[in-house]
Protein: 3-methyladenine DNA glycosylase
Organism: Blastococcus goldschmidtiae
Amino acid sequence: MPSASAVATVLAEPEWQARAAAHEARIDRWAVPHRERRMHGETHPVHDFLFTYYSETPGRLRRWHPGVGTALAPSADGPAPHAAWRWYRTDDDGIVSLDRARYLADRGSTVDFVHGFLAATAGRPVFAGCFGLHEWAMVYRADERRHALPLRLGRAGTDAVVEGHPIRCSHYDAFRFFTPGAVGRNRLQPTRETQAAMEQPGCLHATMDLYKWAYKLGPAVPGELLADCFALATEVRELDMRASPYDLRDHGYAPVAVETPEGKAEYAAGQRAFAGRGAELRRRLVVVCETLTQA
């Protein structure tokens, strides 16, 4: 088998060990409290979302990968543990790297979809005029709600905000949770089929979903990029919930009162800032896709 060193950057054992340890420590900042809450039967309305809504497990999230184009030199004990993991290959010198051909045979259609989806989203302008009203539409005229939290403005006040504001949600995975009474109030009617054509980079959920696209690309994404996407998603989720109709002050979160001009301005500013940071992560994910498929 030809040497991986001919086609990849090769990390010496001390470097990849250090990077793997740093990745685990970084993820444990969120994964350990989540695991402890589960052990005690507790939940957190903000921090648990990325572990419950998305399908990646904390264990897989903690697993560091070098990413496509980077290989791992062996240690004194033999090849890196990645040698036993799916879609990796080990050359005659004990150097471990992603087996791009095998990976694309199994995941090529996913790579093509994610690449097209992210590139299309990146080419659209940022829209910062939705003001987080998707969360309000999810509880409009509903007796039950997704979170066991009080409504900051009460039932009538929450419904009045929905009725008094134009709603323009372009994100299908938020829109699908709208209550029946709120569906027709949305100026857009996204579907799963039109998702790629409607996604826009200012949407908070589109920015959070960069984490989803990162883990769907699996071991081809460097652990540092996956962790960067996860970390940004945690910040975005905080704004998402602070701007929601729920009252999270008992959890330490001051509300962003999007029903007021000041709250709208604060939300839009946060949207634009997150969109800027998300654009760089989206670019890096596109590079991963292009590296995978290049000759």
